[in-house]
Design goal:
By secondary structure, this protein is mostly helical. The chain has 13 helices and no strands.
Length: 289
């Protein structure tokens, strides 16, 4: 086997690459390795190896099963609706004849740039059962007769935080899709119009296929954000009313210094994230083939 030798340019690049590699190892690789190791020990100080006992306790815990179901429901709903709403925003504003496009985009994008804690606190105030603005408006226009317990009922709590997450993340999708729409060649649409293609035919045959790469990035980012979201859920419901996700479960376990169980939960959260990502990447790869 021929021994691989670094070229002169590659050797020169090592000093520039090395700091980034060291930072990655210190900030990402080592913490992952440490948490993974702790998930197989009983006492974080003595480091007694207990195998899969922490994971076994996790799986037999009814709270964990419900948490996984909540995480799946939360992730699928927020990703799907954030992407659809953001794409709809982009396509509507991008249409010919729409005036003040920059103003509309800026108004929608405000939801994205507002700090997460501020968004969650404002929405918690709006959705308060007694005296909240949402219930007040709905009662004034006659849609409801009594206040809806948006954040204090299992029936509405998950729906409420999903709505807020979709409202907050859709502007990011709008920005990405808008950038893609502006790069699409106009001659393709002109040719399609000459052939008698309608709006749906142009959208399904030209727009959607050409925006596949951007859609891939958007959905992947939305997946990661949804699974790791903490502040919004914690501020609005504190994980109550069947809204506890894996990120909140890890926090609750760390809060009571149950570090080994928390490490096992964190590893499971990482696995769930990877499963979603791998399934999505495989589905996109099959379409490309």
């Amino acid at each position: 086997m021929k021994k691989k030798v670094l070229t002169k340019d590659e050797r020169k690049a090592i000093p520039f690459v090395l700091p980034g590699l060291l930072a990655t190892a210190i900030l990402i690789v080592y913490p992952l390795f440490y948490i993974f190791r702790m998930s197989f020990t009983y006492n974080s100080q003595a480091g007694k190896f207990v195998g899969l006992q922490n994971y076994t306790r996790l799986f037999v815990n009814p709270q964990f099963t419900q948490t996984v179901l909540n995480t799946i429901k939360w992730t699928l709903a927020t990703v799907i609706f954030s992407f659809l709403l953001g794409t709809l925003y982009a396509m509507l504003i991008h249409r010919k004849g729409i005036k003040c496009k920059g103003v509309w985009r800026s108004a929608i994008f405000i939801a994205w740039i507002i700090p997460g804690v501020v968004k969650a606190t404002a929405w918690k105030w709006l959705l308060t059962t007694g005296g909240g603005m949402a219930n007040h408006i709905l009662q004034q226009i006659g849609i409801i007769s009594k206040p809806i317990p948006w954040l204090t009922s299992p029936k509405f709590a998950m729906l409420s935080i999903i709505i807020v997450q979709v409202w907050a993340c859709a502007p990011y999708v709008m920005l990405m899709v808008t950038a893609g729409l502006q790069q699409l060649p106009a001659d393709l649409y002109e040719s399609a119009e000459l052939d008698g293609a309608g709006w749906w035919q142009k959208t399904s045959k030209i727009t959607i296929p050409l925006l596949k790469d951007i859609s891939f990035i958007c959905i992947l980012m939305l997946l990661v954000w949804a699974i790791n979201e903490f502040s919004l859920i914690w501020i609005m419901t504190s994980g109550g009313q069947q809204t506890t996700t894996l990120s909140l479960l890890v926090y609750n376990q760390f809060k009571v210094l149950n570090l080994n169980a928390a490490s096992a939960s964190a590893v499971m959260q990482l696995l769930v994230t990877m499963i979603f990502a791998v399934l999505y990447v495989k589905s996109v790869s099959k379409e490309d083939e």
